[in-house]
Design brief:
Radius of gyration: 16 Å
Structural class: alpha+beta
Helix content: 10-25%
Strand order of the largest sheet: 2-3-4-7-8
CATH architecture: Alpha-Beta Complex
CATH topology: Peptide Deformylase
Number of domains: 1
Strand content: 25-35%
Order of helices and strands: EHEEEEEEEHHE
Length: 184
């Protein structure tokens, strides 16, 4: 099933997601559908709030970027109840986009590496460190679980310049080639 992706202005994107356990209904099916939805929209990451589910779950598949980042070959992961517990002091700026903010791309400053604990789709616990693009993608999706979108993290001047686009987007004035939904 391909879910519609909730767009900026939708209340679910601002909610604090809740943890889940292995008894969550149809979890394997939900994860498969999240990957299908992400692929359909040409995304490399998707958090559950983006499909209207305020739970601590996100998927990433960074393997399409392996030509530029060989270390991302076969980087396909599910993160359940993640907790980033350490951020590097070193930061970098890079342009980001988001399926929930179609057509909007801006530079975002993020730490270069993170340490994170999470459960995979089999509820096996992991404690790992990620650097570079993987760290950036994980932080981007993790932010969704806290009700944060990348537009919240751009420089103040850029945020001011984006205001009209964001207001228009929250009123349904945007274009996306994938199914979208608003206002949940």
């Amino acid at each position: 099933m391909i879910y519609p992706i909730y767009v900026y202005g939708s209340t679910v994107l601002r909610e604090q997601a809740v943890e889940i356990n292995s008894e969550y209904p149809d979890l394997a099916k939900l994860i498969k559908n999240m990957f299908d939805t992400m692929y359909d929209a040409d995304g490399v990451g998707l958090a559950a709030p983006q499909i209207g589910k305020s739970i601590k779950l996100f998927t990433v598949d960074l393997s399409p970027l392996e030509d530029d980042y060989p270390e991302l070959k076969d980087f396909v992961k599910v993160f359940i109840n993640p907790n980033i517990y350490e951020y590097s002091e070193e930061v970098s700026s890079r342009e980001e986009g988001c399926l929930s903010l179609p057509g909007l791309n801006e530079d975002v400053i993020r730490p270069n590496s993170v340490k994170i604990t999470y459960l995979d789709e089999n509820f096996v616990e992991h404690d790992e460190e990620y650097t570079g693009f993987a760290a950036r993608a994980i932080q981007h999706e993790y932010d969704h679980l806290d009700g944060v979108v990348f537009a919240d993290k751009v420089a103040l001047l850029r945020k001011t310049l984006m205001r009209n686009k964001l207001n228009a987007m929250s009123k349904g004035k945007f274009k996306a080639r994938y199914r979208t939904k608003q206002k949940k």
